[in-house]
Design a protein that fits this description.
The complex is a heterotrimer.
Chain A: H1 10-13, H2 19-38, H3 41-66, H4 75-90, H5 95-114, H6 123-142, H7 144-147, E1 153-154, E2 158-160, E3 163-165, H8 168-190, H9 193-203, H10 205-210, H11 215-241, E4 243-244, H12 251-264, H13 269-289, H14 295-298, H15 302-318, H16 322-336
Antiparallel strand pairs in A: 1-4, 2-3
Helix pairs in contact in A: 2-8, 3-8, 3-9, 3-11, 3-12, 3-13, 4-5, 4-6, 4-11, 5-11, 8-9, 9-11, 12-13, 12-16, 13-15
Chain B: H1 2-31, H2 38-55, H3 60-83, H4 91-111, E1 130-133, E2 136-139, H5 140-162, H6 164-174, H7 176-181, H8 186-208, H9 225-232, H10 237-257, H11 262-277
Antiparallel strand pairs in B: 1-2
Chain C: E1 7-16, E2 19-29, E3 34-38, H1 45-52, E4 60-65, E5 68-69, H2 75-81, E6 83-85, H3 98-104, H4 114-119, H5 122-141, H6 157-170, E7 175-179, H7 187-202, E8 207-211, H8 215-221, E9 224-229, E10 232-237, H9 239-243, H10 246-253, H11 259-265
The chains are: A mainly alpha, B mainly alpha, C alpha/beta.
Chain lengths: 358, 291, 267
């Protein structure tokens, strides 16, 4: 195991806590850099999809895992980003500008949706986000002249200043770069006063306020940043899917996004990506195992839903810290091998402070 | 005339929302947890009724109580097996748990061969009957809904007012720990509350089935119980029904008076306005956190 | 010749519904003074604290802090002016480490805007280093070195109390509001607390307004004491004077008891 002696304040500020970080994340980045040339096209497209959902998950993680605000309508922000990207690409905007516009418009919608957060919280906020998401979705459905309504809309190829490309490899690297950039951005926020204000709001609003944190500003900011990441993911998925319809960004998708943060591990950056990996890989595993399952089970459309549900229930009941929490336990076991005690990382039972006030 | 017709349709639809909201409020009051699975419980109720009637050929009047009992047992089981072990965990965990149960319920129904993936009609004895009142022709299936809802509310009222178990539930919803120290078996009560909530949801499903088609996604109608509960003040059973009917009527009138599309979002617009103006609902008082 | 007081509370009243929690209370807190509010439970002491830190809204009255009228401000604004507080039932950030909790205390002195934080510019890095250094001073001041990287949720109660005090000190306040700082502490920890309160005043020059029940601690550290009962003013003066004030004895023991009875009850 590794002992870390702190000799400078920078060690608490740096992103890489020790040389092991540099090595393992370097290895991961290197592997992802060569993946599209080594793996079959289909597999690298799965990685692309995982990265896209990872970005969206990152956004929701920032909002739910770090600021403690729950959104049950996050797919709507993806929808805003996706449609913005589709419309602007059709008008011939270059890809980076269209992407920026998608993020900004999602962030704007997010800031508006965040407004109820200034008055209500917890369950009420969740309901408000749900309501907003339905309204946004309905606007997309009804604004047929722009969005094509329920018939959907084809999304053009990526336009890099006149050079149009539909190459999956180019797209892979675009997503890869954006994933790395957004992750670094979120990590930066979290180690700066802004991120600490988010965490403070999550843990105790009253005391955050007494420490000088302006609730209205940071809650709105958290919503805006989170929505802009969802919008970014939505815009990328629009190019990935090439055809978008309003129901791709409905309540089912929103719940899938919550699945990402919960199964991945609430309150951890790794969790967003673990969760995305789970969401993308489960249907593949089902597809692969279809041949081995009795047709009455394997061939039905419900299997995926049942599996998502069972895994979700299992995680809530047995491993509330998610895949990331499980991973930390396994890693600690290897580090401490003979010394590991079973309840070393046992979570304290967290009794919910009652919200009932009378 | 059309206007009145719309109001009546709205009341019928609103009663369904209200019934689902009752289950939701029961659970919220008793355990302070939020159940996102009420809609799926309604869907399961409707499907169970469908299976009993069309597949097993049980007569309607027997199938209804059978469905009700089965769903109550199911609700009780869900609480005992899944919810009670993590009571006291952050509210979000429990929300996710109920969402997980919802996933399983939807998927499981979809996995039923033939029935699960197609739209189904529940055959009820009062199908295609209608009543004419002063020039209005009202489908029987829409009249039955408010009637049953009213009867159910009366029963719930009497239960909470006069039975030992009802009073015990009220005590537990005020303070679980105090009720526990007074010798009330709070844990078992929570199971009963879930059973009741599931039962009410099943009734909603059986009532709704003749009006709309049954399919595995009908549970998403249950999401409109949240606006209903918020309008009613979240912690009040009569409020839930009033909120449900309010939402139902507004929705129905929005479909009639406003351009297409407004009907589907009317409930959500109302709840947003409500949250902005009176977050504690029509019947809620002001509360503040003590430090 | 006398300098104006740091905090002056004038004719403060609060009503919740029909209940008057605080009625017409006035007092001053001078610079470098330890000022204590005492009174039986429900006397309205904590409410006064909550109004000064702006968590509650007063019904009538005026509060001035160092020349600013703070009665219209939000809690985060008065924190920016230099009023820090602790809570009766510890309100720490449970899922964060001690260090992160203390760094939140530096929030009012943060530098850079959202975009600079997003890119973690060199100036932000420099400010972080400075904040970390300041926090380390407070850690040393209150002997929290051992707990620096531990998560709050696992700490014993007494340590949490100290962490909360440390977090308030990280604001570098000019006025510190302590809500029952000794409740739940053992005698040894209370003894440490008394020394710290003296040090906070002497070394850091911070004025303290506290609510406290432990009379031996109150007598030991306070310059002046204000006794309240049922939201109303009872007595104001030095700890020794207030302790023997007939109104205070009546408030604690009821009418008809005299000081000899109080002596018998207190060690």
């Amino acid at each position: 195991m590794r002992f870390i002696f702190k000799t400078s304040y920078d060690q608490d500020i740096r992103l890489a806590r020790h040389s092991g970080y540099v090595f393992w994340y370097g290895l991961l980045l290197a592997a992802l850099s060569v993946a599209p040339f080594v793996l079959p096209v289909y597999w690298s497209s799965l990685i692309t999809m995982t990265m896209i959902y990872g970005i969206v998950g990152l956004g929701l993680m920032l909002l739910s895992g770090f600021t403690g605000l729950f959104s049950i309508g996050h797919a709507a922000f993806m929808g805003v980003g996706a449609y913005m990207q589709g419309v602007l690409t059709a008008q011939g905007w270059p890809f980076p500008f269209a992407l920026a516009a998608s993020m900004v418009s999602s962030a704007a919608v997010g800031a508006v949706v965040g407004l109820p957060a200034l008055r209500v919280r917890g369950l009420y906020l969740a309901i408000a986000t749900l309501a907003f998401a339905f309204i946004v979705q309905e606007v997309i459905v009804r604004w047929e002249s722009v969005t094509g309504g329920n018939r959907g809309m084809a999304v053009g190829m990526i336009n890099l200043f006149g050079w149009k490309t539909g190459s999956p490899i180019v797209f892979y690297y675009i997503c890869f770069a954006l994933t790395v950039l957004t992750t670094l951005g979120v990590l930066n926020l979290l180690r700066s006063p802004t991120g600490r204000a988010f965490v403070a709001i999550r843990d105790s609003e009253v005391s955050a306020q007494s420490m000088g944190v302006t609730l209205a500003y940071y809650k709105t900011l958290s919503f805006a940043v989170s929505a802009s990441l969802a919008g970014l993911g939505g815009a990328l998925s629009a190019h990935m899917l090439r055809f978008i319809t309003p129901d791709q960004f409905g309540i089912v998708q929103s719940i899938d996004l919550l699945l990402i943060v919960m199964i991945g591990g609430l309150g951890s950056i790794h969790g967003a990506f673990f969760g995305a990996l789970f969401l993308i890989l489960t249907p593949q595993v089902i597809a692969l195992s279809k041949d081995y399952l009795p047709p009455a089970i394997g061939q039905t459309v419900g299997l995926q839903s049942v599996l998502y549900g069972l895994v979700l229930i299992a995680f809530v009941l047995f491993e509330p810290t998610g895949i990331y929490g499980r991973w930390v336990k396994i890693r600690t076991w290897f580090e401490l091998a003979p010394l590991y005690r079973k309840n070393l990382l046992k979570r304290q039972r967290r009794f919910q402070k009652t919200e009932r006030l009378t | 005339m059309h206007f009145l017709q719309q109001v009546i349709n709205g009341i019928a639809q609103g009663c369904i929302y209200g019934l689902i909201a009752i289950g939701f409020v029961l659970i919220y009051k008793a355990t302070e947890t939020v159940s996102f699975v009420q809609g799926e419980l309604m869907m399961l109720g409707a499907f169970l009724g469908l299976v009993l009637i069309t597949v097993l050929g049980i007569p309607y009047w027997l199938a209804v109580p059978a469905t009700l009992l089965a769903m109550m047992a199911f609700g009780f089981l869900v609480e005992r097996v899944a919810i009670s072990p993590i009571l006291g965990e952050p509210a979000f965990s429990i929300v996710m748990l109920t969402l997980g149960i919802g996933y399983v319920a939807r998927g499981a129904v979809m996995m039923i061969p033939e029935l699960g993936t197609e739209l189904q009609v529940l055959p009820v004895p009062y199908r295609d009957q209608s009543v004419a009142i002063g020039g209005l022709i009202i489908g029987m299936e829409r009249l039955v809904v408010p009637a049953v809802t009213a009867a159910l509310c009366l029963m719930l009222y009497l239960m909470f007012r006069f039975t030992r178990i009802g009073v015990a539930m009220q005590a537990a919803s005020q303070s679980q720990s105090a009720a526990y120290y007074m010798g009330i078996p709070v844990r078992r009560l929570n199971g009963l509350v879930w059973g009741m909530a599931a039962g009410v949801a099943a009734i909603a499903g059986l009532l709704l089935a003749p009006i709309v088609m049954i399919d595995s996604n009908m549970g998403f109608i249950g999401l409109k119980a949240f606006p209903a509960a918020v309008v009613g003040g979240m912690a009040s059973l009569p409020g839930a029904v009033v909120g449900g009917v309010t939402i139902g009527v507004i929705e129905s009138l929005a479909g009639y008076l406003l351009p297409e599309g407004f009907k589907d979002v009317a409930a959500y617009v109302v709840v947003l306005i409500m949250l902005m103006v009176r977050p504690n609902g029509l019947f809620g008082g002001e509360v503040r956190k003590k430090v | 010749m006398s300098t104006p007081p740091l905090l002056s509370v004038e004719n403060l009243s609060v009503r919740f519904g029909g209940i008057t929690a605080v009625s017409n209370i006035s007092f001053d807190v001078r610079r470098r003074e330890v000022f204590t509010l005492i009174g039986p439970n429900g006397a309205g002491k904590t409410t006064v604290l909550n109004i000064i830190s702006r968590i509650y809204q007063q019904t009538a009255g005026n509060i001035n802090f160092d020349g600013y009228c703070i009665t219209g401000m939000k809690p985060d604004a008065v924190a920016g002016l230099g009023i820090a507080r602790t809570f009766q039932n510890i309100e720490l950030f449970e899922h964060a480490t001690v260090l992160q909790n203390l760094l939140i205390g530096r929030h009012t002195r943060r530098q850079g805007n959202f975009w600079q934080h997003l890119f973690f510019t060199p100036s932000v890095r420099e400010a972080e280093r400075a904040a970390r250094e300041k926090v380390e001073e407070v850690i040393e001041f209150l002997d929290l070195q051992h707990y620096r990287d531990l998560v709050i949720a696992g700490l014993p109660y007494g340590i949490r109390k100290v962490v909360e005090l440390a977090r308030a000190l990280c604001i570098e306040p000019r006025l510190l509001l302590l809500d029952e700082p000794s409740s739940g502490l053992n005698p040894e920890e209370t003894n440490d607390l008394a020394f710290w309160i003296d040090d906070i005043r002497e070394e850091l020059g911070i004025a303290i307004l506290m609510v406290e029940h432990d009379m031996s601690l109150v007598s030991r550290v306070s310059d002046r004491v204000l006794a309240m009962n049922y939201g109303e003013f009872v007595a104001l003066g030095s700890p020794d004077d207030v302790k023997v004030h007939p109104g205070v004895i009546e408030a604690y023991l009821g009418k008809g008891n005299d000081i000899s009875l109080l002596r018998r009850h207190l060690p």
